[in-house]
Amino acid sequence: MSDESQARPDPSASPPTASESRLAFNEDWAATILGLVLLVLVLVGVIPTGLVP
Amino acid sequence: MTADATRAPSEARDTDSVTATEGTSTAPATSAAAATPSEPTDGGTTSIRSGAFWGWTALGLLVVLGLAALTRYLEQNVPVFFEDTAVEDIAGAIEYPVYAILLGLLGNVLVTLLGLRDRIAAAFRTEFFIKTGLVLLGASINLSVIASAAGPAIAQAILLISGVFLFTWWLAGRFGLDDKLRALLAAAVSICGVSAAIAAAGAVRARREQLAYTASLVILFALPSIFILPWLADVFGLEDAVAGAWIGGNIDTTAAVTAAGALAGEEALQIASIVKVTQNALMGVVAVALTAYFTLRVERQPGAARPGLGEVWRRFPKFVLGFVAASVIATWYLDGAGADGKAVIGVVNDLRVWFLILAFVSIGLEFRVASLREAGWRPVAVFASATVFNLLLALGLASLLFRGFDG
Fold first, then answer.
1. Residues with Cβ within 8 Å of residue B257, at least 6 apart in sequence
2. What is the mean pLDDT of each run of 10 residues along chain B (407 residues)?
3. Which ipTM value was assigned to this complex?
4. How far is A7 from chain B (nearest CA, A)?
5. Partner-chain contact A2 B314, CB within 8 Å
6. Sign (positive or negative) of CA dihedral B137, B399, B220, B373
7. Are B352 and B136 in contact (CB under 8 A)?
8. Distance in Å, alpha carbon of A28 to nearest chain B alpha carbon
9. 3-state SS, residue A25
10. In chain A, pLDDT over 90 holds for what percent of residues?
């Protein structure tokens, strides 16, 4: 492989981009919950027609 | 996620002892002199947030919201301003993605000149905004359309991801790029841009600057695609469904797919979204395959366990479930609500447009060319070649699988 010259990472250490990955998964859930909550609020009339510009 | 990735260069300067960008012999070192005044937010310090951080983030959110409000104002009023003038048709044809991205780029220049950009960048949450918008978009798509499009969308996604990933991996190898950068570029071009690059970065333990660089490439290529693909679809005379499938299968980042789909029309937007969401759903599978390949073959960690189904679920983009759930809820609601229901779903559509505008403004705000300059020309050449390959393969597959589609 072409990356033989690079240092082998410590298997026990977190990947240097692990925080981005964790944040991405959390954002997935946050977006899902927010989207569905907004949908329900509109359907039950808490956010009425004409309120959103 | 895009925001995370494009914030990464400043984080890398603060924290990584990297002397050259991997895989690019021409890449200069990232120097301490280039460090920005932004707070270090690397993986080890993300839990430590000062009051100043939240203050700057709140300011950034105000900037995003202000530009989004201006976008909405221009979208609704420019056609009125230019009524009965020579440019009436042009003014009426400009859609909100155009205003949002241009205002975002303009805002980017302004906050950079004011030295605020890196301080407020935590508010540029493109992926969060776009995913919320896509969940809301699910409410405007009848479940039967998703069911009808699922077969060809899955077929296209599997063929496209396999073909484009392997082509990019092979080409990047021919150009002598590092395996990790190869994985990031191949995942970004073949699956769904920055999201896939982040998933791949976690899988192959890539460096922050590689992720930031890949994210910048995705945005660099996605911005013109937003305008060129709908135009080409019109020039080629593609059916709406084929145009949507082409856009969804070709443009890397989900936000840009939605922007291009919106420019191409409502049906094209729906099909483009379904195709892109399907590709997103396959991201977990590719991420797990990459994890297994790098753990067992490239880095050969002794005793490493093979990733299982739990890992697939952990890496699965959960907003896909929200997209389908919104469609189920709205379809059920419309069946019972009758004519009044459409006005109610119209409110959901307005909310969806707001979130998409927030995402497009963020795309403009977070775009940066600095990390592209640092990495040299070879990854750019690989990404450009892979994009052309993707363009042609996606056009062929979309024409084959979505011709005569009737949702």
1. B247, B248, B251, B272, B273, B276
2. 38 32 31 33 49 91 97 92 83 80 92 93 88 88 85 91 94 92 91 78 78 80 88 93 93 84 89 88 78 73 67 76 90 85 90 91 82 78 94 94 81
3. 0.70
4. 10
5. no
6. positive
7. yes
8. 5
9. helix
10. 36
Spatial contact of B60 and B120, defined as CB atoms under 8 Å apart: yes
Note the pLDDT of residue A20.
Answer: 60
Closest partner residue to A16 (CB to CB) among B208, B301, B325 is: B208
Length of chain B (residues): 407
User: Are B178 and A11 a contacting pair at CB < 8 A?
Assistant: no
CA angle, residues B17, B23, B25, in degrees to nearest 5: 85
Residues with Cβ within 8 Å of B289's Cβ and at least 6 positions away in sequence, in order, are none
The residues, ordered by sequence, that sit 6+ positions from B186 with a Cβ below 8 Å of its Cβ are: B164, B165, B166, B168, B169, B172, B200, B386
pLDDT confidence tier of residue A21, bands split at 50, 70 and 90: low
In this prediction, residue B262 carries a pLDDT of: 87
pLDDT higher than 50, residue A16: yes
- When CB atoms are compared, the residue of B134, B207, B298 closest to A16 is B207
Report the predicted TM-score, pTM, of the whole model to 2 decimal places. Answer: 0.71
Q: Identify the CA nearest to B374 among candidates B17, B29, B19.
A: B29
> CB-CB: which of B132, B180, B325 is closest to A31?
B132
- Residues in A closer than 8 angstroms to B207, CB to CB, are 16-17
Q: What is the mean pLDDT of chain A?
A: 72
Q: Which three-class secondary structure string do you get for chain B? A: CHHHHHHHHHHHHHHCCCCCCCCCCCCCCCCHHHCCCCCCCCCCCCCCCCHHHHHHHHHHHHHHHHHHHHHHHHHHHHHHHCCCCCCHHHHHHCCHHHHHHHHHHHHHHHHHHCCCHHHHHHHCCHHHHHHHHHHHHHCCCCHHHHHHHHHHHHHHHHHHHHHHHHHHHHHHHHCCCCHHHHHHHHHHHHHHHHHHHHHHHHHHCCCHHHHHHHHHHHHHHHHHHHHHHHHHHHHCCCCHHHHHHHHHHHCCCHHHHHHHHHHHCHHHHHHHHHHHHHHHHCHHHHHHHHHHHHHHHHCCCCCCCCCCHHHHHHHCCCHHHHHHHHHHHHHHHHHHHCCHHHHHHHHHHHHHHHHHHHHHHHHHHHCCCHHHHHHCCHHHHHHHHHHHHHHHHHHHHHHHHHCCCCC
Q: What pLDDT score does B98 carry?
A: 81
Query: Å from B238 to nearest chain A CA?
Result: 32
Q: How confident is the model at residue A25 (pLDDT cuts 50, 70, 90)?
A: low
